[in-house]
User: Fold this.
Amino acid sequence: MKRIAVLISGSGSNLEAIIKSCNSNLINGKVISVISNNPDAYGLVRASNYKIDTKIINHNQFSSRNEFEEVLEDYLDQLNVDLIVLAGFMRILGKKIINKFSSKMINLHPSLLPLYPGLNTHEKALSNKDKEHGVSIHFVSTELDAGPIIAKGVININNNEKIETLVDRIHKIEHKLLPKIISQICEGNI
Ligand code: GRF
Assistant:
């Protein structure tokens, strides 16, 4: 059974989708720790509801990005993980930690990469009147949202689509695609 760490910053709905898939054996793995840089992330509550260990590493409590990442790196080392999933983790990581873990660190990004790296992807898709939008799952590299792509999920943008419905529809495909890809990684197929 693979050891999975999930890094979050917010709601953690994708985290919950991963946990449920582990619990129902759709993923041959276990979330051994949920790490949040945000002490108020609701994902921490979700993790506790499933009795999963949580760890807060609050970037605001460090005087530099390096110090924050040293602590994060040490903690990930201790966990001895097979896979690190960035699921709504809103910090950009530096070269050292990425180079150390890149082969086993994946990120979920809410756009059809290479379109729209960075923030506000839904707004950009709508304001550009795109016909399609979606999500990408990729290995993390030192360039933001630009590592090797593993999978994409595509949806059509409806006429007069509102951002709320778009976000909701994006979440729905994320909740299916991310556990599926994690399962494939845990099986050694990716
Ligand atoms: C997801 O849409 C993900 O693509 C983006 O942030 C959101 C996190 O949602 N990076 P949640 O915290 O998993 O509910």
About this structure: Residues 3 and 82 are 5 Å apart (CA to CA). The beta strands are 2-8, 29-36, 54-56, 83-86, 105-109, 132-139, 149-156. The pocket of 5-O-phosphono-beta-D-ribofuranosylamine is lined by residues 8, 10-15, 43, 87-88, 108-110, 135, 170-171, 174 (CB under 6 Å). The chain is about 40% helix and 25% strand.
